[in-house]
TrEMBL record:
SUPFAM superfamilies referenced in this protein's UniProt entry, alphabetically: (Trans)glycosidases
Domain annotation Glycoside hydrolase family 29 N-terminal: ranges: 31-332
Family: Belongs to the glycosyl hydrolase 29 family.
Record has Cytoplasm as a keyword: no
Gene Ontology cellular-component annotations: lysosome
Organism whose genome encodes this protein: Algoriphagus chordae
Record-given protein name: alpha-L-fucosidase
UniProt KW Hydrolase keyword: yes
Amino acid sequence: MNISYPLKSYLLAFAILILLFTQNKPGFSQENPEKMEWFKDAKLGIFIHWGIYSVNGIDESWSFFNDYISYDDYMKQLSGFTAANYDPEKWAKLIQSSGAKYAVLTAKHHDGVALWDTQASDLSVVKKTPAGKDLVGPLMNALEKEGIKKGIYFSVLDWSHPDYDRNTRETFRYKDDPVRFQKFVDFNFKQLEELSTQYDPDLYWFDGDWEHSPEEWKSAELKAKLLSYNNNLIINSRLGPGFGDYATPEQGVPVTRPASEYWELCMTMNDSWGYQGNDHKYKTPNELLRIFVDCLHMGGNLLLDFGPKPDGTIPEEAENILEEFGRWTTKHKSAIYETQAGIPDGHIYAPTTLSPDKTILYIYLDYKVNESLAIKGLKNKIQRVWVVGNGTKLQSREVGKMYWSAVPGMKYIDIPDNVYDKDITVLAVLLDGPVDLYGDMGQVIESN
């Protein structure tokens, strides 16, 4: 076929645009975007890492994988996992009062120990620990009663299963046996069928996919099977590219917004996912709230993690953090839920979000300003400014607007000392229409 040079150029440019688009939207699928509405609006979730690793307070699963402890010694923790003071109703009420809209429980970590009465193997807290009962169902029921969306964490790898092909970082149990690995995949499908039919989760938080390809995990078949139980099910990004609904950056706070339309930062309260009695490096509530606000500013969620003790009690430090979150989210709920990502950095020295119609600009201040807060490049007129949570009206003014220039003046908001929140103060700025920003390099006078 003879294609003219201009047409070739257009086709090449179009191909490059398609490539760039696909690279910036890496492998996330929302065939049913309506199901993502609650997740987008939820903003805050609670992650719960609970398992036998809490008995000795050691790294969950990784401690034997990395040969810090023998596998047999790791498994001795089964005898100390009691769940004697497990109070799922208390957990759910604390989660609800924190302002979280969903919670995710580790039903099975990489060590293979199930927190429910799985019939696919004998390795569960029901059969092997003094707890002797299902721990997943009671929490799922309690969350549902509190109006909290139910999430289940599930490791697709299982370093305890005899048909899984890896034991530790240096030692392989077996290699290159597809028939045997298929038996393991069938086991995974069976356990996920149990979780899906017994607890009807709203969300699956998968982990451990890095050791095999999506084809080996049968990710396409697994996703189809899970959606057959619940067509509104949300799945995270860890079944391989193209099978998840949202991105899951971990621990490190993103500096720029992740490429996925929907995303969630998972973050520990201290330095450990599960309970470790020697880890006293808890972040302060203020530090965690500032991380939460960073997520809001970039249009994402925070999944905040704590690890219960082996008897089921929640560490005092974790309870305090959740209570402090509850104080702040209750006061500022209008500036949290259903908001969208804020305006680009550089216009205000603070994180921001916008109302659904983009006519209210929310500004989050974790510091006291010197005299007044400045906003640059805002074309809109400010109709009103108030302090979220107490309604105090604040004065605003524009300085330096030249009649001959398209460049807006500086907007200033005066903030008295008595309106500051002890953690983060939130201002609501009502605009005369959807936010309109100037982003060019300024002007020089050409006619006056």
